Amino acid sequence: MKIGLLGLGTIGSGIYEHLLKRKDIQVVRILELLRHPGLEHLETSDYSEILNDPEIDTVVELIGGMEPAHTFTVQALKAGKNVVSANKLMISHHMEELLTLARDIGVQYRYDASVGGSIPFLYNLMRHRSADRLTAVSGIVNGTTNLILDTMQTEGRGFDEVLKQAQEQGYAEANPSADIDGVDAQCKICIASAVAYQKFVRPESVDTEGIRHITGEDIIFFKRLNRVCRLIASSALNPDGSISAFVEPTLVSEGSTEAAVHANNNTISVTGEYFGLHTFQGQGAGKDPTAFAVELGLRDILDGVTQRLDPIPEGYADVDNGQVCHRYYLRTAAPLNMSGEALGPCGSATAYLTQPMSVRAMHDLATELRKADPSLFFAGINE
């Protein structure tokens, strides 16, 4: 197999280093604007050199972001080349187009590496889906935010300090918004849900809250409640055939599986009517875990493992988060006109425990309260 590698950043350099140890997969061209000593003979800034090279049968897209990743991927598929990608943002917004295009042309589009880091979750989700009716998917799917939350709660350090360290260690990007605002997890639950329920999910339909505004004062209240905070992405079938799909900080019990997931690790669970609950764990962020997942996709193509287990979903899911209810921890300085228990002062604000309310209602309430208190923080309570 001869591949064209798009991007030589953190993950791109990781997959290049991995493939140097293999004789059956060779990087013959690298699309990269910057030049790297010793790789000048492979590097190009002209994508057409990859598209028009008949020796290159597979493109590995690790540019990230929406464009030009989307355009490059479409062009590669139309040129009859397989594509492997970990780009969850682009995949979640263009999944239907890319899967359909790959099928019609007769090439493979492998996106297994887009969810779960080193965990072979999506492939196993495809296999589970082929033999059972799946009813729920949930878990910690962003290693960067888990690292931040875990460090803050175990070491008593502040958000800004821990984020800076995560950036220095290569776990968080220079612009960490996609991670700490929950966008990365939002994209991943869309992709996983499409595989699980065979309906595409629009990212904008997924209620999403990140961890940007968590403080040490909040964590003190979590400990009083015997709880640990994790960023959880969830989706499930509703009784009426719609699905719920949301991302939010969640307070889990100290003895839960999620509480025991430390550092940059992920844990993702899938529930089926026959098999019950299966949980997958492993590293979810960093250079080597993602490069490993990309290499698995390349290996599958080389071995002739198709994605026939993953039929293309039909249509788009009706997302209704009004059917899922639980209590919330809410910290705000804005006036609050609702029933609930005041836990006490929390910095310049007040912490509350709400009565059970729907996910949709809580996210709408937070949007309204942020007009007066932009630093508001809330977390669902897993009971």
Would you write up a description of this structure?
The protein is of the alpha/beta class and 383 residues long. The protein folds into two domains: 2-110, Rossmann fold; 121-283 and 317-381, Dihydrodipicolinate Reductase, domain 2, CATH 3.30.360. It contains twelve helices and 18 strands. The strands form three sheets. Strands 7, 8, 9, 10, 11, 12, 14, 15, 16 and 18 form a ten-stranded mixed beta sheet that branches. Helix 3 (69-78) links the parallel strand 4 and strand 5 (82-85). Helix 3 packs parallel to helix 4 and helix 6 packs across helix 7. It is globular. The chain starts with a strand and ends with a strand. 48% of the residues are buried. The model has no long low-confidence stretch (mean pLDDT 94).
Q: Which CATH architecture of the largest domain would you pick?
A: 2-Layer Sandwich
Net shape: globular
CATH T-level topology of the largest domain: Dihydrodipicolinate Reductase, domain 2
The CATH class of the largest domain: Alpha Beta
Number of helices: 12
What's the main sheet like? 10 strands, mixed
Residue share in β-strands: 25-35%
Question: Based on helices, strands and strand pairing, what is the structural class?
Answer: alpha/beta
Order of helices and strands: EHEEHEHEHEHEHHHHEHEEEEHEEEEEHE
Distance N to C terminus: 49 Å
- CATH superfamily grouping of the largest domain: Dihydrodipicolinate Reductase, domain 2
